[in-house]
TrEMBL record:
Record SMART domains: ANTAR (SM01012), GAF (SM00065)
UniProt-listed InterPro entries: ANTAR, CheY-like_superfamily, GAF, GAF-like_dom_sf, GAF_ANTAR, WH-like_DNA-bd_sf
Repeat found in the keyword field: no
GO molecular function: kinase activity; RNA binding
Pfam families referenced in this protein's UniProt entry, alphabetically: ANTAR, GAF_2
Lineage: superkingdom: Bacteria
Keywords, sorted A to Z: Kinase, Transcription, Transcription regulation, Transferase
ANTAR domain residues: 168-229
Name recorded for this polypeptide: Transcription antitermination regulator
Length: 240
C-alpha cells in the first residue's frame, strides 16, 4: 500500500479548465499502470487529490448476497469500514449502487446504516460505481472526517474521474488477460512437446491426449500442462 501523501502533487482546480487539466493528468497516470491492481491503487490515491474534500478513498468489490472485499485503499480505516465494527451492522450505502450510479452519505452520525463509519471517524462518503454486472459491483468510495463534505460539485468531479478509471481498468484487465493467454499457450506448447517425446506421437495426438486427460481428471488444461512441465523440470533437475 502506497501512502496517500505520495500523490499529494495531484492537482486541485478552481474552474472547468483546471478540472479538465487535472483529469487529463489523472488519466495519464492511470493508463501508465500495467495491471488492474496497480490501476486501482493509483485510482484511490488520485481520488484523494481530485475530489474536493476527500481525505481517504477505497475501492471495493461487492457480490450478490452481501460479500464484500476491499481491493485498494489509502488508509487502514477504509478497510475497517469494509469489515464493519464488531457487534454492529456494516454500512449499507453500497447496496444502493446496484440501482444507482452514485450514493452520498451526508452525515454518518444521523443517517441509517452509517454508524460504522461514524465510529471510525468518517462522517461523509461519496460512493461511485465503477463496474457492474448481475453478480458483482466494483465501487470507488471517497471519505471525509467532517459531515456534508461531498456536494454536487464533488459528485460531478467523481463521475468524470470514475469514467477515466473504468476505461483504464478495462484496458489493464484486457492486457493482463492477453498476457495470461500467451503464457498459457506457451505452457500448453511445452506440455505437448513433453508428451510427444515421451509417447512418441505427433503434435495433434499429444494435444488430444492432454485434452482428454484434462476432461477425465476435471482439471483445467492450463493447470494440467503446468503440472506436466513442473514434473518434467523436477525430473531433469534430479538427474543433473
Amino acid at each position: 500500500m502506497v501512502p496517500a501523501s505520495d500523490f499529494s502533487e495531484s492537482p486541485r482546480f478552481a474552474g472547468d479548465f483546471e478540472l479538465a487539466e487535472a483529469l487529463v493528468a489523472a488519466a495519464r497516470r492511470l493508463h501508465e499502470t500495467v495491471t488492474p491492481r496497480s490501476t486501482m491503487d493509483a485510482a484511490v490515491r488520485l481520488a484523494v487529490g481530485l475530489l474536493p474534500g476527500a481525505e481517504q478513498a477505497g475501492i471495493s468489490v461487492l457480490e450478490r448476497g452481501g460479500n464484500r472485499r476491499t481491493v485498494a485503499w489509502t488508509d487502514e480505516s477504509v478497510r475497517a469500514v469494509e469489515a464493519g465494527v464488531p457487534g454492529r451492522t456494516k454500512p449499507s450505502h453500497w447496496e444502493h449502487l446496484w440501482h444507482e450510479p452514485v450514493v452520498r452519505v451526508a452525515d454518518s452520525e444521523t443517517e441509517e446504516g452509517g454508524e460504522p463509519l461514524a465510529v471510525l471517524g468518517l462522517r461523509s462518503a461519496l460512493a461511485l460505481r465503477l463496474r457492474a454486472d448481475r453478480r458483482r459491483l466494483t465501487v470507488l468510495t471517497a471519505y471525509a472526517g467532517k459531515p456534508h463534505v461531498f456536494d454536487e460539485a464533488a459528485t460531478r468531479v467523481g463521475r468524470l474521474f470514475t469514467a477515466h478509471v473504468s476505461l483504464a481498468l478495462e484496458s489493464a484487465t484486457v492486457r493482463e488477460q492477453l498476457t495470461e493467454a500467451m503464457r498459457t499457450r506457451d505452457l500448453i506448447g511445452q506440455a505437448t512437446g513433453i508428451l510427444m517425446e515421451r509417447m512418441n506421437i505427433d503434435a495433434a495426438e499429444s494435444f488430444d491426449s492432454l485434452v482428454r486427460a484434462s476432461q477425465r481428471e476435471n482439471v483445467k488444461l492450463r493447470d494440467l500442462a503446468r503440472r506436466i512441465v513442473d514434473a518434467n523440470n523436477a525430473t531433469r533437475e534430479a538427474g543433473s
